What we know:
The protein has 227 residues and is an alpha+beta fold.
Amino acid sequence: MGFRIMGDRGLLVEYGDAIDETVNRKVRSVAAAVAAEPPEGVLETVPAYRSLLVIYDPLATRLQKLQDFFRRLEERIDRIAVPPPQTLEIPVCYGGKYGPDLAFVARSHDLTPQEVIALHTARTYTVCMIGFSPGFPFLGGLAPELETPRLQTPRTRVPRGSVAIANNQTGIYPLESPGGWRLIGRTPLKLFDPCSEPPVPYRTGDRIRFTRITEKAYQRLREEQNP
Protein backbone atom coordinates (compact mmCIF):
# COMPACT_ATOMS: atom_id res chain seq x y z
CA MET A 1 0.00 0.00 0.00
CA GLY A 2 1.24 3.48 -0.86
CA PHE A 3 -0.04 7.04 -0.76
CA ARG A 4 0.07 9.93 -3.21
CA ILE A 5 -1.13 13.44 -2.46
CA MET A 6 -3.59 14.69 -5.07
CA GLY A 7 -3.93 18.43 -4.58
CA ASP A 8 -5.09 19.96 -1.31
CA ARG A 9 -8.14 17.68 -0.80
CA GLY A 10 -7.22 14.39 -2.40
CA LEU A 11 -5.36 11.30 -1.24
CA LEU A 12 -4.67 8.41 -3.62
CA VAL A 13 -4.34 5.07 -1.82
CA GLU A 14 -2.51 2.61 -4.10
CA TYR A 15 -2.70 -1.18 -3.70
CA GLY A 16 -0.70 -2.33 -6.74
CA ASP A 17 0.91 -1.24 -9.98
CA ALA A 18 -0.85 -3.46 -12.55
CA ILE A 19 -4.30 -4.58 -13.67
CA ASP A 20 -4.97 -7.53 -11.39
CA GLU A 21 -8.28 -8.98 -10.20
CA THR A 22 -6.97 -9.65 -6.67
CA VAL A 23 -5.79 -6.06 -6.32
CA ASN A 24 -9.08 -4.77 -7.72
CA ARG A 25 -11.03 -6.85 -5.18
CA LYS A 26 -8.95 -5.29 -2.42
CA VAL A 27 -9.79 -1.79 -3.72
CA ARG A 28 -13.49 -2.67 -3.77
CA SER A 29 -13.28 -4.07 -0.23
CA VAL A 30 -11.72 -0.87 1.06
CA ALA A 31 -14.29 1.27 -0.79
CA ALA A 32 -17.09 -0.79 0.79
CA ALA A 33 -15.59 -0.39 4.27
CA VAL A 34 -15.25 3.38 3.86
CA ALA A 35 -18.82 3.66 2.55
CA ALA A 36 -20.14 1.70 5.55
CA GLU A 37 -18.20 3.72 8.14
CA PRO A 38 -16.75 6.85 6.53
CA PRO A 39 -13.98 8.44 8.60
CA GLU A 40 -14.44 12.03 9.68
CA GLY A 41 -13.81 14.49 6.90
CA VAL A 42 -14.07 12.06 3.97
CA LEU A 43 -16.44 13.44 1.33
CA GLU A 44 -16.17 10.91 -1.49
CA THR A 45 -14.20 7.91 -2.72
CA VAL A 46 -13.52 6.90 -6.32
CA PRO A 47 -12.38 3.27 -6.80
CA ALA A 48 -10.22 2.41 -9.82
CA TYR A 49 -8.38 -0.71 -10.99
CA ARG A 50 -5.61 -0.59 -8.41
CA SER A 51 -6.23 2.49 -6.29
CA LEU A 52 -8.80 4.45 -4.34
CA LEU A 53 -9.04 8.23 -4.62
CA VAL A 54 -10.22 9.79 -1.36
CA ILE A 55 -11.67 13.30 -1.47
CA TYR A 56 -11.62 14.92 1.97
CA ASP A 57 -12.25 18.20 3.76
CA PRO A 58 -8.87 19.51 4.97
CA LEU A 59 -10.66 21.61 7.61
CA ALA A 60 -12.25 18.48 9.13
CA THR A 61 -9.34 16.03 9.12
CA ARG A 62 -5.59 15.78 8.63
CA LEU A 63 -3.71 13.90 5.95
CA GLN A 64 -1.75 11.87 8.51
CA LYS A 65 -4.96 10.84 10.25
CA LEU A 66 -6.37 9.52 6.97
CA GLN A 67 -3.20 7.60 6.19
CA ASP A 68 -3.30 6.00 9.64
CA PHE A 69 -6.94 5.02 9.05
CA PHE A 70 -6.09 3.17 5.82
CA ARG A 71 -3.09 1.46 7.41
CA ARG A 72 -5.37 0.10 10.15
CA LEU A 73 -7.91 -0.92 7.54
CA GLU A 74 -5.23 -2.91 5.72
CA GLU A 75 -4.81 -5.14 8.79
CA ARG A 76 -8.40 -6.41 8.54
CA ILE A 77 -9.00 -6.16 4.82
CA ASP A 78 -9.49 -9.92 4.39
CA ARG A 79 -12.48 -9.77 6.75
CA ILE A 80 -14.28 -6.95 4.93
CA ALA A 81 -17.42 -8.08 3.10
CA VAL A 82 -17.75 -6.92 -0.49
CA PRO A 83 -21.33 -6.24 -1.68
CA PRO A 84 -22.58 -9.21 -3.73
CA PRO A 85 -22.39 -8.51 -7.47
CA GLN A 86 -25.33 -8.39 -9.81
CA THR A 87 -25.06 -9.79 -13.33
CA LEU A 88 -26.38 -7.80 -16.26
CA GLU A 89 -26.95 -9.03 -19.79
CA ILE A 90 -26.08 -6.51 -22.49
CA PRO A 91 -27.51 -7.20 -25.98
CA VAL A 92 -25.08 -6.39 -28.79
CA CYS A 93 -25.36 -6.22 -32.56
CA TYR A 94 -21.89 -7.20 -33.79
CA GLY A 95 -20.01 -6.17 -36.93
CA GLY A 96 -21.00 -4.09 -39.95
CA LYS A 97 -21.69 -0.44 -39.26
CA TYR A 98 -22.13 -1.30 -35.57
CA GLY A 99 -18.70 -2.89 -35.20
CA PRO A 100 -16.37 -1.58 -37.91
CA ASP A 101 -13.25 -3.10 -36.28
CA LEU A 102 -14.60 -6.64 -35.93
CA ALA A 103 -12.93 -7.81 -39.14
CA PHE A 104 -9.59 -6.30 -38.07
CA VAL A 105 -9.73 -8.05 -34.69
CA ALA A 106 -10.52 -11.33 -36.45
CA ARG A 107 -7.64 -10.98 -38.94
CA SER A 108 -5.21 -10.02 -36.19
CA HIS A 109 -5.78 -13.36 -34.45
CA ASP A 110 -6.39 -15.63 -37.46
CA LEU A 111 -10.00 -15.97 -36.43
CA THR A 112 -13.28 -15.52 -38.27
CA PRO A 113 -15.65 -12.74 -37.17
CA GLN A 114 -18.01 -15.44 -35.93
CA GLU A 115 -15.27 -16.88 -33.73
CA VAL A 116 -14.53 -13.44 -32.29
CA ILE A 117 -18.20 -12.99 -31.43
CA ALA A 118 -18.35 -16.46 -29.87
CA LEU A 119 -15.30 -15.74 -27.71
CA HIS A 120 -16.59 -12.31 -26.67
CA THR A 121 -20.03 -13.58 -25.66
CA ALA A 122 -18.67 -16.67 -23.86
CA ARG A 123 -17.13 -14.73 -20.97
CA THR A 124 -18.58 -13.08 -17.87
CA TYR A 125 -16.78 -9.80 -17.27
CA THR A 126 -16.11 -7.90 -14.05
CA VAL A 127 -16.71 -4.14 -13.84
CA CYS A 128 -13.27 -3.20 -12.50
CA MET A 129 -13.84 0.55 -12.62
CA ILE A 130 -16.11 3.20 -14.10
CA GLY A 131 -14.54 6.25 -15.66
CA PHE A 132 -13.13 8.05 -18.72
CA SER A 133 -16.66 9.26 -19.50
CA PRO A 134 -19.84 8.99 -17.41
CA GLY A 135 -20.77 5.34 -17.01
CA PHE A 136 -17.93 3.85 -19.09
CA PRO A 137 -17.25 0.37 -17.60
CA PHE A 138 -13.72 -1.00 -17.82
CA LEU A 139 -14.32 -4.74 -17.96
CA GLY A 140 -11.79 -7.37 -16.93
CA GLY A 141 -11.82 -10.97 -18.13
CA LEU A 142 -11.33 -10.63 -21.90
CA ALA A 143 -10.23 -13.87 -23.58
CA PRO A 144 -6.47 -13.74 -24.30
CA GLU A 145 -7.23 -14.69 -27.92
CA LEU A 146 -8.95 -11.30 -28.38
CA GLU A 147 -6.33 -8.99 -26.87
CA THR A 148 -5.86 -6.25 -29.48
CA PRO A 149 -4.02 -2.91 -29.27
CA ARG A 150 -6.06 0.26 -29.48
CA LEU A 151 -6.08 2.50 -32.55
CA GLN A 152 -2.92 4.51 -33.18
CA THR A 153 -5.12 7.55 -33.88
CA PRO A 154 -8.38 7.74 -31.88
CA ARG A 155 -11.67 8.39 -33.61
CA THR A 156 -13.15 11.83 -33.02
CA ARG A 157 -16.63 10.30 -32.74
CA VAL A 158 -17.61 6.94 -31.30
CA PRO A 159 -21.40 6.28 -31.31
CA ARG A 160 -23.26 5.80 -28.08
CA GLY A 161 -23.50 2.15 -27.04
CA SER A 162 -20.37 1.02 -28.89
CA VAL A 163 -18.81 -2.16 -27.48
CA ALA A 164 -15.05 -2.19 -27.86
CA ILE A 165 -11.71 -3.88 -27.13
CA ALA A 166 -8.40 -2.31 -26.09
CA ASN A 167 -5.47 -4.54 -25.15
CA ASN A 168 -6.75 -6.99 -22.51
CA GLN A 169 -9.95 -5.09 -21.72
CA THR A 170 -13.39 -4.69 -23.16
CA GLY A 171 -15.83 -1.86 -22.47
CA ILE A 172 -18.90 0.11 -23.55
CA TYR A 173 -19.21 3.76 -24.58
CA PRO A 174 -22.44 4.90 -22.86
CA LEU A 175 -22.22 8.31 -24.56
CA GLU A 176 -21.00 9.53 -27.93
CA SER A 177 -17.40 10.63 -27.49
CA PRO A 178 -13.93 10.41 -28.99
CA GLY A 179 -12.21 7.08 -28.42
CA GLY A 180 -9.38 4.83 -29.51
CA TRP A 181 -10.73 1.37 -28.70
CA ARG A 182 -11.52 -1.22 -31.39
CA LEU A 183 -15.27 -1.19 -32.07
CA ILE A 184 -16.75 -4.66 -32.52
CA GLY A 185 -20.45 -4.05 -31.88
CA ARG A 186 -23.08 -1.80 -30.38
CA THR A 187 -25.79 -2.12 -27.74
CA PRO A 188 -29.14 -0.34 -28.06
CA LEU A 189 -29.42 0.06 -24.28
CA LYS A 190 -29.20 3.49 -22.70
CA LEU A 191 -26.52 2.96 -20.06
CA PHE A 192 -26.19 6.48 -18.69
CA ASP A 193 -29.12 8.63 -17.62
CA PRO A 194 -28.31 11.60 -15.35
CA CYS A 195 -31.99 11.84 -14.40
CA SER A 196 -32.09 8.30 -12.99
CA GLU A 197 -30.91 7.09 -9.60
CA PRO A 198 -28.47 5.50 -9.97
CA PRO A 199 -27.50 7.04 -13.33
CA VAL A 200 -25.85 3.78 -14.51
CA PRO A 201 -27.27 0.26 -14.01
CA TYR A 202 -24.00 -1.28 -12.73
CA ARG A 203 -21.34 -0.57 -10.14
CA THR A 204 -17.76 -1.71 -9.65
CA GLY A 205 -17.65 -5.41 -8.91
CA ASP A 206 -20.77 -6.24 -10.90
CA ARG A 207 -20.71 -8.78 -13.73
CA ILE A 208 -21.62 -8.23 -17.37
CA ARG A 209 -22.41 -10.77 -20.07
CA PHE A 210 -22.86 -9.87 -23.74
CA THR A 211 -25.53 -11.55 -25.85
CA ARG A 212 -25.67 -11.36 -29.63
CA ILE A 213 -28.76 -9.87 -31.29
CA THR A 214 -29.81 -9.19 -34.88
CA GLU A 215 -29.97 -5.75 -36.44
CA LYS A 216 -33.77 -5.98 -36.40
CA ALA A 217 -33.74 -6.65 -32.64
CA TYR A 218 -31.26 -3.79 -32.19
CA GLN A 219 -33.57 -1.34 -33.94
CA ARG A 220 -36.58 -2.51 -31.93
CA LEU A 221 -34.78 -2.19 -28.59
CA ARG A 222 -33.34 1.17 -29.61
CA GLU A 223 -36.86 2.48 -30.29
CA GLU A 224 -38.06 1.15 -26.93
CA GLN A 225 -35.16 2.97 -25.20
CA ASN A 226 -36.00 6.23 -27.00
CA PRO A 227 -39.81 6.42 -27.26
